[in-house]
Design goal:
149 residues, alpha+beta, four-stranded antiparallel beta sheet, 44% helix, rod-shaped
């Protein structure tokens, strides 16, 4: 075997290659987890936007016909809550959203000093779509009703 004197060996050692592979694997894992978190956040925001639209649809229908607001508590998919409030009318909602969302609806008298209890009704609507607390949206809506003559 002939050995060249004064000539340096070129290339990487096995240890250097292993270290670089580990660094690349860690970088890839970090980028992958960030990507996963971004997708989750995007889906959560999309669900929140859809919940806002469903809530607006419920509130708009209530505003159109205030006489249909009865003191009651309801819970279920948006279409069933809507059908109960509006006595059989159908809600325009996509089937997958109706299955995704769960609505809690409560209409009750709101007692304010010097105002008859039946004059002010508080409606609380909560729409949820997951198990986390951040996966829900709640709004409170006050309706002033004309006293019965």
């Amino acid at each position: 075997m002939k050995r060249v004197v004064g000539h340096k060996a070129r290339g990487f050692t096995l240890l250097e290659v292993l270290i670089s592979v580990v660094i690349l694997a860690l970088a890839f894992a970090t980028v992958s987890s960030l990507h996963s978190a971004t997708i989750t956040a995007t889906m959560r925001m999309g669900n929140k936007q859809q919940a806002i639209l469903v809530m607006r649809q419920l509130i708009s229908a209530i505003e159109e016909d205030l006489n249909r607001v009865n003191l009651q508590q309801l819970e279920g998919p948006p279409s069933e809550v809507y059908r109960t409030i509006f006595e059989g009318q159908k809600m325009s909602i996509q089937e997958e959203l109706d299955q995704l969302f769960h609505v809690k609806y409560a209409a009750e008298q709101w007692g304010v000093p010097n105002i008859p209890p039946e004059a002010l009704i508080k409606i609380t609507i909560t729409i949820s779509w997951g198990v986390a607390e951040a996966d829900s949206l709640t709004t409170m809506y006050l309706i002033a009703k004309e006293p019965d003559a």
